[in-house]
């Protein structure tokens, strides 16, 4: 874990990356984080985001159900990592606009000393994160303005290195983000760079949309691209190979499944149909 000299020091007094937060918010074009916020019922979005989301819903009406199920999977997954796998450090890349309960709230309710580094490149995400997300004083929470497609800038960031100890296991969270990286941008290489930096005993949690259960998802994704947001839905086999198999990771039971089926709790509502969910999720460990 980070050195004892850091314990108890306010985040404002700790070293952070020198790059200033982007001062301009592009309200004229949709952003994946704000579209997702709208689909989850949030209010931190603009007309362009709502138009884009509604256009997707015209082709794929269950998109809101899928977004909600993805969120439920994320919370189940990080709860498992904290409570059962004993993970105390989390790197959440492409975190999106804060939606309570957030990852750090779930994790620190189990392990108050847990440390979480959030990463996103949407200015609104960072503004809300820094204003609204407060860590348990026994742990740490920090936020970095950076792009998933540049893993080196994230892994090498002073902020991330200040929060996380890369000699101890870390959970890398890639929730609903990799389908925004088309093949020509080498998503496998991006994941590989992150995994290479993780010590043994670390985990990867990831989700990804799929066209396998409802063919309408492909035209919906195409409509998203028309709004300037690149997407690529993938099959279960493609997702498994991209994130887990090619990286030498060992899947946690039940493996790659629909996000609605991964260790669903008895207290949760009945799972939607596969066509409504249309997203896979999994956890894997680096041994």
Helix and strand layout, with pairings?
Layout: H1 32-39, H2 47-59, H3 63-83, E1 89-93, H4 103-110, E2 115-120, H5 123-132, E3 140-145, H6 151-155, H7 158-163, E4 171-174, H8 187-197, E5 203-209, H9 217-226, H10 236-243, E6 250-251, E7 257-258, H11 274-277, E8 279-285
Parallel strand pairs: 1-2, 1-4, 2-3, 4-5
Antiparallel strand pairs: 5-8, 6-8, 7-8
Helix pairs in contact: 1-2, 2-9, 3-4
Report on this structure:
There is one protein chain. With 287 residues, the protein is α/β, with parallel strands linked by helices. The chain has a single domain (27-285), classed as Vaccinia Virus protein VP39 (Rossmann fold, 3-Layer(aba) Sandwich), CATH 3.40.50.150. It contains eleven helices and eight strands. It has helices spanning 32-39, 47-59, 63-83, 103-110, 123-132, 151-155, 158-163, 187-197, 217-226, 236-243, 274-277, and strands at 89-93, 115-120, 140-145, 171-174, 203-209, 250-251, 257-258, 279-285. Strands 1, 2, 3, 4, 5, 6, 7 and 8 form an eight-stranded mixed sheet that branches. The chain is globular and about 45 Å long. The protein starts with 31 loop residues before the first helix and ends with a strand.
What is the third-level CATH name, the topology? Rossmann fold
Task: Specify the CATH homologous superfamily.
Answer: Vaccinia Virus protein VP39
What is the top-level CATH class? Alpha Beta
Please give the CATH architecture: 3-Layer(aba) Sandwich
Oligomer: single chain
Number of helices, counting only DSSP H or I runs of 4 residues or more: 11
Helix content: 25-40%
Distance between the termini: 19 Å
Mean pLDDT: 87
Order of helices and strands: HHHEHEHEHHEHEHHEEHE
